[in-house]
């Protein structure tokens, strides 16, 4: 009885603490140290603070969405728009198609709990950095194999079929 009560108190304390931490990506502004390269009412694109590749940007929806795991088929258009925007930015930077990587980290391997698409122009600055963004093709009916990174196209195809993106093959 006592331990149950204690457990509940701890849970509530944790929820309170989490609720009081402002979301970093809900507060993207130059004042907060972000280098914004593009924005409209829906999305904002900014430079990654620790670039892993020659070009490394992030695109986030301004609306708070937890992660790629929270997306479903109704989000396909949004992901498509993010991918298009990412490719337009890479066009401007002169990055050839074969040197582009766009995609999402899958929880718990994401850094910030606000959906962000990594937009990269390769090469990677080091082999170790590149290891964080593996694209693993799926076998059989799977669009994606076991990995902690979901490429934009894989994400779109999984969502279109009514699936959801996870670490395991989907
Ligand atoms: Zn947020
Ligand atoms: Zn990430």
Walk me through what this model shows.
This is HIT domain-containing protein. The protein has 170 residues and is an alpha+beta fold. It has one domain: HIT family, subunit A, CATH 3.30.428. 29% of the residues lie in helices and 21% in strands. Strands 1-2-3-5-4-6 form a six-stranded antiparallel β-sheet. The radius of gyration is 18 Å and the shape is globular. It binds zinc ion (2 copies). The site of one zinc ion (ZN) has 4 residues, from loops. One zinc ion (ZN) binds next to loops.
List the keywords.
170 residues, alpha+beta, HIT family, subunit A, 6-stranded antiparallel sheet, globular, binds zinc ion
Summarize the structure.
The chain is of the alpha+beta class and 170 residues long. The protein has helices at 2-20, 76-92, 127-130, 152-160; strands at 36-39, 43-47, 53-61, 100-105, 117-124, 149-151.
So what's the overall shape? globular
CATH architecture identity? 2-Layer Sandwich
CATH class: Alpha Beta
Class computed from helices, strands and strand pairing: alpha+beta
Quaternary organization: single chain
User: How widely separated are the two ends?
Assistant: 42 Å
**Main pleated-sheet profile:** 6 strands, antiparallel
Low-confidence stretches: 11-16
Bound molecules: zinc ion
Motif (Histidine triad motif): 114-118
Keywords: Hydrolase, Nucleotide-binding
InterPro entries: HIT-like (IPR011146), HIT-like_sf (IPR036265)
Protein name: HIT domain-containing protein
């Amino acid at each position: 009885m006592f331990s149950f009560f204690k457990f509940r108190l701890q849970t509530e304390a944790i929820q309170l603490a989490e609720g009081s931490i402002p979301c970093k990506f809900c507060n993207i502004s130059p004042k907060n140290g972000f280098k914004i390269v593009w924005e409209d009412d829906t999305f904002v694109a900014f430079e990654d603070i620790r670039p892993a590749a020659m070009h490394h940007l992030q695109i986030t929806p301004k609306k708070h969405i937890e992660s790629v795991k929270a997306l479903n088929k109704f989000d396909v258009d949004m992901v498509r728009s993010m991918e298009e925007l990412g490719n337009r930015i890479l066009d401007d930077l002169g990055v050839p198609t074969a040197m582009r990587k766009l995609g999402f980290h899958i929880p718990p391997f994401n850094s910030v709990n606000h959906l962000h698409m990594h937009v990269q122009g390769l090469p990677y600055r080091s082999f170790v950095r590149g290891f964080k963004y593996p694209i693993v093709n799926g076998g059989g009916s799977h669009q994606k194999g076991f990995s902690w990174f979901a490429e934009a196209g894989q994400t779109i195809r999984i969502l279109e079929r009514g699936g959801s993106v996870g670490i395991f093959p989907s």
